[in-house]
């Protein structure tokens, strides 16, 4: 009995020695706690990279693949910074007698209302020539892989074409109680049914016929994707030149024609202006057509897969955890890990001459946090840069999938970012 008591006393005395030690209140441990709580409700992944030392300082599910959403645009941006020059190549051209023959290069900024300077269009309208538009440069699908056909009427999902024009949308707004279109050109005079009793304009799935509600609410605005054909392209360009006060007989489409050695390139918007629009505009246009532009600039076949392949050749990090299917992230088939994205962010910093130029592409969340945000389907992702109070600079990627309560998740994200800002 005495032996048993002695053994019990010994175990009692030793128990504190084997008890689990309380975690120290370090920044990494606080991050682990915060992210662990989020991961209990949703699927969370995180990576933080010290850009000064080029080291990963913390990761949580860092090597797991997540639906990337518009964080995919970061890879498109990196490709653009490596492949393109100062301005977007708009088209190749040659002059033959009274004819100006152009080969479109999928310039997404051509006549886009957000880009006021249009030197490529100026070249066309000032030429005084008959314009021949070589068609057939792009033969792929009008939508990217995995895109939802239900979004055919949504302004953020525009058709992929070899010759984007006006952002590939017609924009409607309410003026004096009536729906007004921009561009208001004859080529876009669709058949309109104004007996429709709804809240939004509806376009037919396979043509440009519209149903416009009888009564639209004040402040109404909507972008309608254009269904393209050669005749629509010809009409839009002809009407725009005429509306600018310049004479042209017309614009004609001609079948694929081989370029001679005398072709020149017409450039349009500055690349940095286009890159800023790529990240800040919530649509597919810029990203998808930049991939096609990569292909044509390098003399390759104009398609999405070729553009992606050409871009990844310039990446200095492993793409094993990157499944890249389009340029904008609209496809749920785009997958990436947090570690892959911070590697991309790190290379973006190294290839951009001016740090402020790079940061200007991103949305400023706070004075020291710059993000690319994504909310595709049940996902909410933020990736970007943090300049901590310590002065150190970090790249981070915070990916969240299977999100069932978006507002609850958002309330938990900023404390995590502020923890990095304050503690690292």
From TrEMBL:
Coiled coil: none annotated. The keyword Protease applies. Its EC number is 3.4.16.4. Residues 1-19 form the signal peptide. One of its GO terms (molecular function) is serine-type D-Ala-D-Ala carboxypeptidase activity. It is an enzyme of class 3 (hydrolase). The keyword Hydrolase applies. Keywords: Carboxypeptidase, Hydrolase, Protease, Signal. Belongs to the peptidase S13 family. This is D-alanyl-D-alanine carboxypeptidase. It comes from Pseudopedobacter beijingensis.
């Amino acid at each position: 009995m005495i032996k048993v008591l002695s053994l019990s006393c010994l175990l009692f005395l030793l128990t504190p020695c084997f008890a689990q030690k309380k975690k120290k209140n370090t920044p990494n441990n606080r991050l682990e706690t915060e992210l662990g709580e989020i991961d209990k409700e949703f699927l969370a992944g995180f990576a933080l990279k010290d850009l000064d030392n080029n080291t990963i300082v913390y990761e949580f599910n860092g090597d797991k693949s997540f639906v990337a959403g518009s964080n995919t645009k970061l890879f498109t941006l990196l490709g653009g910074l490596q492949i393109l020059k100062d301005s977007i190549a708009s088209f190749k051209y040659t002059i033959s007698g009274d004819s100006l023959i152009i080969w479109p290069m999928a310039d997404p900024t051509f006549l886009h209302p957000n880009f006021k300077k249009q030197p490529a269009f100026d070249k066309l309208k000032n030429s005084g020539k008959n314009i021949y538009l070589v068609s057939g440069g792009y033969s792929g699908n009008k939508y990217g892989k995995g895109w939802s056909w239900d979004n055919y009427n949504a302004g953020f999902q525009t058709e992929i074409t070899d010759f984007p024009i006006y952002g590939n949308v017609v924009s409607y707004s309410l003026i004096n109680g009536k729906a007004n279109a921009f561009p208001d050109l004859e080529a876009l005079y669709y058949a309109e049914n104004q007996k429709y009793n709804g809240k939004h304009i509806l376009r037919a799935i396979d043509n440009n016929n519209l149903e416009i509600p009888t009564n639209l609410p004040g402040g109404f605005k909507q972008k309608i994707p254009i269904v393209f054909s050669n005749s629509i392209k010809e009409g839009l360009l002809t009407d725009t030149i005429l509306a600018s006060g310049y004479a042209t007989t017309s614009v004609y489409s001609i079948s694929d024609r081989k370029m001679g050695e005398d072709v020149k390139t017409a450039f349009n918007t500055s690349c940095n202006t286009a890159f800023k629009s790529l990240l800040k505009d919530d649509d597919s246009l810029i990203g998808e057509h930049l991939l096609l532009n990569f292909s044509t600039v390098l003399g390759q076949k104009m398609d999405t897969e070729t553009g992606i392949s050409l871009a990844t050749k310039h990446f200095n990090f492993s793409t094993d955890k990157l499944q890249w299917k389009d340029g904008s992230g609209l496809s749920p088939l785009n997958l990436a890990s947090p570690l892959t994205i911070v590697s991309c962010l790190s290379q973006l910093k190294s290839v951009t001459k001016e740090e402020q130029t790079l940061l200007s592409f991103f949305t400023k969340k706070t004075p020291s946090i710059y993000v690319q945000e994504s909310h595709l389907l049940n996902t909410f992702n933020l990736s970007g840069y943090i300049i901590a109070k310590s002065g150190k600079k970090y790249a981070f990627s915070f990916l969240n999938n299977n999100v069932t309560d978006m507002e609850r998740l958002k309330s938990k994200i900023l404390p995590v970012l502020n923890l990095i800002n304050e503690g690292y």
